[in-house]
């Protein structure tokens, strides 16, 4: 219909233009004659005639009413969609409506189409033709997040407009009839049925229209968009700025009130056009779900690093005072039933929020543990979270994963792992004082630590370190010392004497049952301190063996005459492991303490400082005077410590060690200077006099000395140097008359020695000789004159100075490196392995010969049991041995770690 | 070895099988420290009371370069009672019966606590070269030994099984 036609039609009704006209008015239907009745007589008045008459009348009324009510068609141009021209409501129309709605033309039996049905259809048709394309245009593509609000608003506005358009005629022209009918009927039958007549009609009509609306929108897209819009509103209302998508331009925060109003308007509008209901509620639920997530990750609930408090109360408060009112508001807009939040729901939501928070926290628990105790707030959050069901399991599995990924890998130093372990112990103690969780998560760490070779060494040496007098640098990550352990050690020993079983203490008002997930045999460890956890990493025997080694080394180096730390450590360990196994360690400690006393006794009784022990000195060069002690041991071993202060006479202090109880000590044989030998012999004889039958065996490689060297132009003192260094430098002292003579002849050239000579003179290993030489070159005492030949630098200011200094610098580095390798007084594992390699190989050969092919593990186990004196190695070393033997063609690998004799 | 010796001595004060185990451990250690050509021995399991030994047939005897396995069982009274020694590898020998039992004086009445695993194995090795035909357990073998070395050698080889066959 073009515009011109419309104009024309408005003046001269053209019935044929309207499809609603069933029959031309010009040719009224006369009805049919029923079978058996005579045709065409107007006088025939039978029932069918009356019906026919009604049909005609209804048809006419229908035609009039529908023409009146028909909705305007949009112009072809597509503009002015809703401005149709309504036909004037004439009396004829009024009558027709009345007739059809409440008069005779009304059909209740459903056989005929009612006017309302028709109207609904009409609206549907109109909607499909005019509105739907517009909506499709809105929703055709995925709605961008920024456009969500606009699209929703537009849609809502359009639908509302359309709805008004559709409802208007109905309300204006149809409903009054129904209401009137009601009113008249209600006088007689004031029951529910009649009262709701008009409303029922209206609501049925509305339901139909809403269904049309709803079907015209892509449902999923619509609810997603709505959900996003609600989420967005929530975020803005709570000022949560989630930036996870990155595309969101940072908008200036809207005025909260406006935003709120906007949201309410939209929701109410949506509800009005029938898009509310279940779908919108679902969308809303999604939105709130996401909103809660966002809140959890937002800055509002970030870990409280400063005041170290849990933010859980804050979270609960937000759910109660922020989240719930929003939900209520929206529910009210969507006309939910009931529209208020029940207390149980509130509680549920709080729990939900808590469990989400907890999960978020647990996911970065490792970081919190590392940053203990700054992260106390986060740990307290998790503690709250643990009350939620399933939380413990989540925590254990999540944290174990984090540990295995981030901690238990070869890149982490043992010190680091130990430090983290200590943090874990502390953090989990806060988390769950009963320790069940700790036990669970710590298991893999403990297993891993056990496998590391250096764990025991680091723990024990750290325990023996004094945090107060160590510089910070020693506790760096790469260091072999753990600051955490050392500081634990500095704490007072925890009282462990409450022998009473805690579980039976009836007066303990703070008693709590064990957590439900504790295994039946779980026994809370009585001692809660960190050191206890570390000391129980191993079997007691393994640990004590390692302790012996380290303690031995430590005692020999210790400068503390009272051995306070060592005594304390031993006490500490005794408290934790029981004292029956620590006999060896006690003997070691007693040895060093006794040594002091014996030294004093022997010195007091004897003439160790008599003049005849004085070193020969010469007018010209009064050579270096080694004053140092070597030591001795009871049955076998000896160690020396330096003591004397008198410059002229060397003095000797000995440490007397009971070889049986000490670990194997390094035992390089070499000759000490004759002066010292004399002292040693003297000491020996006195010792034997005091101690009866005991014999001393000197271990020259241990110990240290202090010497002063007199040069032509200077005198220098060296403290704390090793015996072999003393011996080597002493060898440069003219030994005989000829030497003296030659020296004088050479005019201050000093004595020259080469490596070979030194080896022979001192019966010392070449390695040691070279190390000592490097040391002395580093100190600018020696100079290499020819390859492998060295002399004393008597005058520091000689012409060759510059060269010497260079050499000295280079040698010093070398000496330091070597010294590190040589440093340990106790034999290292690898030394031990090399030393006993032959025996071990014989063992393996005989084992494989007689027992057939065996896997490495089994071999290692048998070795541990069978080898007298212990086999302190693991499968790795055994494998190394086997591979070496394979190289010699003795054994062969059958794959899968199984080895056998090469036939 | 001063250290281990001391330990062994201390151990002898203890009672029961731990003493035996300690003595055996020491003997094992001795064998390891001084390996003897052609003789090896090793405990079967942790408790040290059963050993398997391997001896190589002495050169220029019918048993030359044959490998014999033996089992040794030590009682709780060791070393005051001899161990029970049995050939696991089938052997054709005048002083060994068909089930591997051995007739040797030091394993019977001539046993002394001063003997050791190593000395027993050495005796057995020499027994292979010098059987005691005065008291044979295997009369036929004793006869062939004296009369027909070729037949003896044939029987020895026929009866002998390599360790691999033995296991299978």
UniProtKB/TrEMBL annotation, chain A:
Q: Which SUPFAM superfamilies match?
A: Cullin homology domain, Winged helix' DNA-binding domain
Residue stretches spanning the membrane: none
Q: GO terms for biological process?
A: cell division; metaphase/anaphase transition of mitotic cell cycle; protein K11-linked ubiquitination; ubiquitin-dependent protein catabolic process
Cullin family profile domain residues are 491-777
Disordered as annotated region, ranges: 605-646
Establish whether keyword DNA-binding is in the entry: no
Q: Where is the composition biased (Polar residues)?
A: 631-646
What molecular functions are annotated in GO for this chain?
Answer: ubiquitin protein ligase binding
| One GO term describing the cellular component | anaphase-promoting complex
Family recorded in the similarity comment = Belongs to the cullin family.
Q: State the name under which the record lists this protein.
A: Anaphase-promoting complex subunit 2
Lineage, uppermost ranks: Eukaryota, Fungi, Dikarya, Ascomycota, Pezizomycotina
Automatic annotation (TrEMBL), chain B:
| UniProt name for this protein | Ubiquitin-conjugating enzyme E2 2
Q: Where is the active site?
A: 103 (glycyl thioester intermediate)
Return the SMART domains for the record: UBCc
Q: Does the keyword Flavoprotein apply?
A: no
Source organism per entry reads: Lophiotrema nucula
Tell me the superkingdom of the source: Eukaryota
Which family, according to UniProt? Answer: Belongs to the ubiquitin-conjugating enzyme family.
Residue limits of the UBC core domain? 19-168
Task: Please provide, alphabetically and separated by semicolons, the GO molecular function terms listed in this UniProt record.
Answer: ATP binding; transferase activity
Q: Which keywords does the record carry? A: ATP-binding, Nucleotide-binding, Transferase, Ubl conjugation pathway
Coiled-coil positions: none
The record's InterPro entries line, in alphabetical order, gives:
Ub_conjugating_enzyme, UBC, UBQ-conjugating_AS, UBQ-conjugating_enzyme/RWD
């Amino acid at each position: 219909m073009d515009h011109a036609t419309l104009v024309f039609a408005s003046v001269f009704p053209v019935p044929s233009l309207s499809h609603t006209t069933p029959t031309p008015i010009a040719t009224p239907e006369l009805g049919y004659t029923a079978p058996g009745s005579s045709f065409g007589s107007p006088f025939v008045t039978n029932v069918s005639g009356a019906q026919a008459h009604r049909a005609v009348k209804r048809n006419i009324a229908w035609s009039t009413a529908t023409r009146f009510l028909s909705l305007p068609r949009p112009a072809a141009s597509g503009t002015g969609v809703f401005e149709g021209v309504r036909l004037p409501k004439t009396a004829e129309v009024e009558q027709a409506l009345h007739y059809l709605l409440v008069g005779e033309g009304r059909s209740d039996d459903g056989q005929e189409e009612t006017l309302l049905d028709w109207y609904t259809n009409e609206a549907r048709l109109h909607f499909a033709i005019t509105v739907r394309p517009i909506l499709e245009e809105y929703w055709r593509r995925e709605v961008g997040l920024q456009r969500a609000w606009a699209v929703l608003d537009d849609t809502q506005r359009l639908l509302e407009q359309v709805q008004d358009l559709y409802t208007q005629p109905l309300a204006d022209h149809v409903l009054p009839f129904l209401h009137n009918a009601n009113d008249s009927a209600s006088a007689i039958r004031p029951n529910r049925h009649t009262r709701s007549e008009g409303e029922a009609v209206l609501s049925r009509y509305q339901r139909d229209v809403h269904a049309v609306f709803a079907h015209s929108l892509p449902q999923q897209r619509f609810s997603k968009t709505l959900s996003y819009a609600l989420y967005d509103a929530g975020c803005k209302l709570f000022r949560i700025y989630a930036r996870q998508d990155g595309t969101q331009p940072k908008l200036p925060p809207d005025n909260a009130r406006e935003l709120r109003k906007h949201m309410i308007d939209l929701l109410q509008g949506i509800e009005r056009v029938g898009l509310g209901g279940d779908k919108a509620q679902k969308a809303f639920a999604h939105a709130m779900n996401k909103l809660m997530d966002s809140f959890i990750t937002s800055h509002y609930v970030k870990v409280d690093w400063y005041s170290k408090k849990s933010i859980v109360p804050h979270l609960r408060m937000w759910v109660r005072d922020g989240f719930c009112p929003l939900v209520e508001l929206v529910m009210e807009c969507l006309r939910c039933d009931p529209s208020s939040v029940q207390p149980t729901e509130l509680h549920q939501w709080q729990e939900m929020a808590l469990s989400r928070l907890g999960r978020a926290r647990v996911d970065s628990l490792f970081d919190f543990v590392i940053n203990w105790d700054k992260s106390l707030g986060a740990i307290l959050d998790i503690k709250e979270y643990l009350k939620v069901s399933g939380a413990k399991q989540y925590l254990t599995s999540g944290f174990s994963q984090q540990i295995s990924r981030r901690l238990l890998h070869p890149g982490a130093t043992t010190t680091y792992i130990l430090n983290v372990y200590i943090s874990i112990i502390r953090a989990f103690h806060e988390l769950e004082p009963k320790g069940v969780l700790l036990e669970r998560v710590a298991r893999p760490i403990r297993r891993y630590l056990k496998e590391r070779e250096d764990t025991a060494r680091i723990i024990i040496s750290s325990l023996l370190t004094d945090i107060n007098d160590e510089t910070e640098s020693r506790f760096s990550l790469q260091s072999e010392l753990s600051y955490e352990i050392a500081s634990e050690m500095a704490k007072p020993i925890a009282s462990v004497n409450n022998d009473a079983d805690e579980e039976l203490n009836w007066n303990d008002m703070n008693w709590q049952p064990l957590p439900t997930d504790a295994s039946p045999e779980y026994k809370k460890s009585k001692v809660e301190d960190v050191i206890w956890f570390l000391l129980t990493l191993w079997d007691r025997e393994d640990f004590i063996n390692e302790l012996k080694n380290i303690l031995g080394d430590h005692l020999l180096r210790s400068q503390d005459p009272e051995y306070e730390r060592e005594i304390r450590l031993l006490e500490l360990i005794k408290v934790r492991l029981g004292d029956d196994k620590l006999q060896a360690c006690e003997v070691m400690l007693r040895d060093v303490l006794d040594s002091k006393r014996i030294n004093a006794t022997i010195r007091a009784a004897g003439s160790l400082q008599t003049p005849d022990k004085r070193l020969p000195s010469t007018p010209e060069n009064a050579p270096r005077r080694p004053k140092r002690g070597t030591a001795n041991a009871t049955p076998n071993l000896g160690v020396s410590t330096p003591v004397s202060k008198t410059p002229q006479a060397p003095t000797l202090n000995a440490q007397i060690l009971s070889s049986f109880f000490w670990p194997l000590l390094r035992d390089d044989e070499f000759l000490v200077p004759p002066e010292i030998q004399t002292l040693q012999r003297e000491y020996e004889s006195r010792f034997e006099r005091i101690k009866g039958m005991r014999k001393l065996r000197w271990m020259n490689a241990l110990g240290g000395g202090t010497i002063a060297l007199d040069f032509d132009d200077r005198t220098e003192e060296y403290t704390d140097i090793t015996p072999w260094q003393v011996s080597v430098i002493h060898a440069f002292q003219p030994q005989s008359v000829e030497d003296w003579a030659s020296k004088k002849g050479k005019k201050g050239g000093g004595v020259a020695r080469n490596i070979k000579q030194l080896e022979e003179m001192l019966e010392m290993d070449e390695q040691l000789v070279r190390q000592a030489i490097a040391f002395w070159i580093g100190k600018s005492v020696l100079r290499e004159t020819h390859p492998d030949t060295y002399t004393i630098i008597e005058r520091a200011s000689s012409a060759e100075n510059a060269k010497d200094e260079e050499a000295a610098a280079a040698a010093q580095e070398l000496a330091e490196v070597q010294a590190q390798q040589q440093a340990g007084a106790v034999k290292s594992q690898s030394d031990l392995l090399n030393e006993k390699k032959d025996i071990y190989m014989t063992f393996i050969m005989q084992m494989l010969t007689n027992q057939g092919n065996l896997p490495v593990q089994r071999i290692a186990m048998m070795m541990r049991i069978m080898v007298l004196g212990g086999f302190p190695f693991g499968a790795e070393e055994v494998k190394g041995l086997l591979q070496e033997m394979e190289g010699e063609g003795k054994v062969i690998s059958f794959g899968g770690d199984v080895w056998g004799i090469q036939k | 070895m001063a250290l281990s010796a001391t330990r062994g001595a201390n151990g002898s004060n203890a009672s029961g099988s731990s003493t035996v185990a300690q003595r055996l451990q020491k003997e094992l250690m001795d064998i390891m420290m001084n390996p003897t050509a052609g003789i090896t021995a090793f405990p079967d399991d942790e408790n040290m009371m059963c050993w398997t030994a391997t001896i190589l047939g002495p050169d220029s005897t019918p048993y030359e370069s044959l490998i014999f396995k033996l089992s040794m069982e030590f009682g709780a009274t060791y070393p005051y009672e001899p161990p029970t020694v049995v050939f696991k590898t089938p052997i054709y020998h005048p002083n060994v019966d068909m089930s591997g039992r051995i007739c040797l004086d030091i394993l019977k009445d001539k046993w002394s606590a001063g003997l050791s695993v190593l000395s027993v194995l050495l005796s057995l090795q020499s027994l292979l070269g010098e059987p005691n035909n005065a008291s044979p357990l295997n009369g036929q073998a004793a006869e062939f030994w004296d009369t027909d070395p070729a037949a003896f050698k044939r029987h020895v080889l026929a009866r002998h099984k390599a360790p691999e066959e033995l296991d299978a």
